Amino acid sequence: MNRTAASSQAGALEASGARGLHGPACSRLCHRQRPELGLTQALPWQVPALARQQNKWVKVVGGGHSPSDIACTDGFLIHMGKMNRVLQVDTEKKQVTVEAGIHLADLHPQLDKHGLALSNLGAMSDVTAGGIIGTGTHNTGIKHSILATQVVALTLLTADGTILECSESSNAEVFQAVQVRLGCLGVILTITLQCVPQFHLQKTSFPSTLREVHEGFLWLTYVAEYEALDPVILSVNPHEVF
Q1: Considering the entire predicted model, what is its pTM?
Q2: With respect to CATH, is domain 86-197 assigned 3.30.70.1660?
């Protein structure tokens, strides 16, 4: 992919666009070292180039739900929020190509219009497509692999500004390595996900006391080999004392 084409596809990268970063599951906080390092509407390869000039690290942040401090840095913090478009939907192959900053919650309605869906999800959809790959987000149920296994292709911005097209047939080793990269291998720009035909979910809810849940928890995990379309949700009385 040449740089001209990449700039129109990649949209806008926002580097150090926020004053700090913290996740909902941790108390860690990082601040950019100097305000002038912030870049808005930057062409994607300009960020690693400027980082090399100033000998700074580059980190990427998605939805901010990971409890780790991997994204924290005193160098460049790239926020992918403006790279949030659906680029292509291939109904024949049942595949969708998106920019890495799109939230799954925004992707679902777009897939719904084409009669498609992601085969499985984690506990929440307020996460980015790039983030679920980078952090190894797991799914629901025992019959599904992690979300990264739904990726069939992606484009990767490397530290020297090169943009690689990666799949099982092109740059295959990089393609395997970049899944669950933990922020250590470039910036994912676009992702092609394998979808499935749209389906309906059946939810079964029932109330239970904290004592019942506590005493039967291990038994539930033993017998709960639920089908992917038949999850069970427990509503626990928080006032019950055990």
Answers
A1: 0.72
A2: no
